[in-house]
Amino acid sequence: MKKISLFAVAGLMMLSSCDLDINENPNYPSNNDVTADLVFPSIENALADAVGDEMFNNAGFFVQYWDQMPTANQYNKIAELEIDEASDLFNRCYRTLYAGALEDIEDVKSKTSSTADLFALAVLRANVFQVLVDNLDKVPYTEALQGSANAMPKWDDGKVVYEGVLAELDEAENNLTGEPMTVTDPMLNKNVNQWRGYANALRLRMYMRLIDGGSSEYTSKAQALVNANNFFTGDVAWDVYTDAVGQRNPWGAIFYEGTLAGTKNLCAGYPLVSYYNATNDPRAAYALETSAKYNDYVGQLPGCKTLMGQWLGIGSGYNDDYVSNINRAPAKAMPIYLFTQSELLFLIAEVQLRFNNNDAAAKAAYEAAVKADFQSRGIAGADNYLSSAKTNWSAQTSTNDKLHLLYMQKWVAFFYRNHMEAWSEARRTDVPVLSSRKAREIFDDPTIYNAGDFVNPGVNYSSGQTIAKRMPYPSTARRYNKNTPDVASVSDRVFWDVK
Predict the structure, then answer these.
(1) Is residue 13 predicted with pLDDT exceeding 80?
(2) Looking at residue 217, what DSSP letter applies?
(3) Which of 131, 148, 180, 292 is the most exposed place for a label (fewest CB within 10 A)?
(4) Read out DSSP for 389-457?
(5) Burial of 84 (0-12, 13-18, 19+ CB in 10 A)
(6) Rounded Cα distance, 442 and 435, in Å
């Protein structure tokens, strides 16, 4: 495991190896002084920072893992989907991914001839563009990253981008010659086989979205990947954080450093808690605290912070004691997960069930996926959990029931791991299902509610009166690029979300 200190040492080495020129500032070395091996980790860091910080927080609301704490106000508008371009929710991620990750990819490509390095760069580039499309649908791609030669690139359709980076990935892999990686690689330790496995997992993730977006020709490709079974081991994670000031996970650091230190902003979401309770899931203890008032896990109905006091008849007496706080302690040094073994195994199970009609293989992959998530959290009891009628594969009476169980368990496994992918998979599969019951109806009679179903926020500003389907275009893009598409609402869908 490589920690932050690696980069401090690398920076000192970089500066000490430069021939000093009194006309140059040694604190700002020229581009030629910054070699490919030192830039490569910044690409991994930029992608991880985007996925593991703002996307992690916002998508946690979108998939109803959490809601705004009763006495806090930091995220009221996100909880109630009062989101438009002026909200600037994606500006920093957009800048980090384009000006950070993608620009650095181009820089490293110009500084290395190693086909292994170039392949790893193609994998990271594919992941970056996948995340961009899944947030915005259309993004600059074919004309992007040309600097002053084209300061206002056109925005390409999401499907064009998906297929473009998949073709790039194929080409880069076909060009591999067997030579080793030369760049510093804290994430996968220069293991080209791991990079191949990461690439195949990304392909599978994207193929499934293309298939459910109407491109059935990718079905055979997904089957071929699963049948070949050439994937990464462990997790693909940016594991560089420690529980020390300035070295914490960026999302976790929000609550332990700076202006929000000690602030309780997030409480558990009703859908997550209800499903934990319905399935007697021991993973509830990993990142939830029991309610001070009820001494049990209690979730708040989405977007209902301002309504609960009225419904309970206690007005302003509704406070943080009524709900479960999110336990942020595990996040302090938590890696940022770009692809978990659990997600991979759930995808394999889905292909085996839907396309290969291999129930036994699907069951094996499903159970392995759940066990991998338990192991990741250090939670015991996976075998006992999987024997319960509500989570046991063989207890499901139809293929649709098995798919629903698979998708629900994937949603649970993404919690405190990769909220961005949880949001994308929920949009692709329509699971958890959006309840037909209003929040007030569920409050009045919880028995009418199916545990784990999404709930239309009690206060919902989105035009579709549903869960968030996308991010609006960044306001900075609109300000500086006249080719930015027409304004999009959070209720509009990305290209693969056709259901």
Answers:
(1) no
(2) G
(3) 148
(4) TTT-GGG--SHHHHHHHHHHHHHHHHTTT-HHHHHHHHHHH--SPBPSS-HHHHHH-GGGSPTT-B---
(5) middle
(6) 10
Q: Which residue bears the tokens 């009418």?
A: 448
Residue 448 · residue 66 · CB < 8 Å:
no
Round to whole Å and give the CA distance between 347 and 201.
Answer: 9
Strands 266-268 and 66-68: antiparallel
Our CA angle for 59, 437, 58, nearest 5°, is: 10
As a whole number of Å, the CA-based R_g of the chain is 23
463/261 Cα distance (integer angstroms): 35
CA distances from 394 to 71, 335, 391, 413 (A): 44, 34, 9, 20
As a whole number, mean pLDDT of residues 7-35 equals 43
Q: Which residues lie closer than 8 Å to 266 by C-beta, 6 or more apart?
A: 60, 66, 67, 68, 69, 75, 325, 326, 328
Distance separating alpha carbons of residues 191 and 286, to the nearest angstrom? 31
pLDDT tens-place string over residues 130-174 = 999 999 999 999 999 988 899 999 999 999 999 999 999 999 999
Angle of helix 115-136 relative to helix 419-429, nearest 10 degrees? 60
User: What is the distance of C-alpha 103 from the center of its chain?
Assistant: 21
Q: How many CB atoms lie within 10 A of CB 418?
A: 26
pTM of the entire structure? 0.93
List pLDDT tens digits, range 37-94: 889 999 999 999 999 999 999 999 999 999 999 999 999 999 999 999 999 999 999 9
Residues 303 and 77: their CA atoms lie apart, in Å, by 9
- CB-based burial label for 278 (10 Å; 0-12, 13-18, 19+): middle
What per-residue confidence (pLDDT) applies to 262? Answer: 74
For 233, the token pair is: 């081991």
Residue 140 burial by CB count (10 A; 0-12/13-18/19+): exposed, middle or buried? buried
Please state whether the peptide bond connecting residue 26 to the residue before it is cis, i.e. omega within 30 degrees of 0.
no
Question: At 69, is the secondary structure helix, strand, or coil?
Answer: coil
Q: Which residues of 167-201 are buried (b: 16+ CB within 10 A; e: fewer)?
A: ebbeebbeeeeeeebbbbbbbbebbbebbbbbbbb
Q: What is the C-alpha to C-alpha distance for residues 199 and 202, in angstroms, rounded to an integer?
A: 5
C-alpha span between 345 and 369 (Å, rounded): 5
For 14, half-sphere exposure in the C-beta direction (CA atoms, 13 angstrom radius) is 21
Task: Assign 312 to helix, strand or coil.
Answer: helix
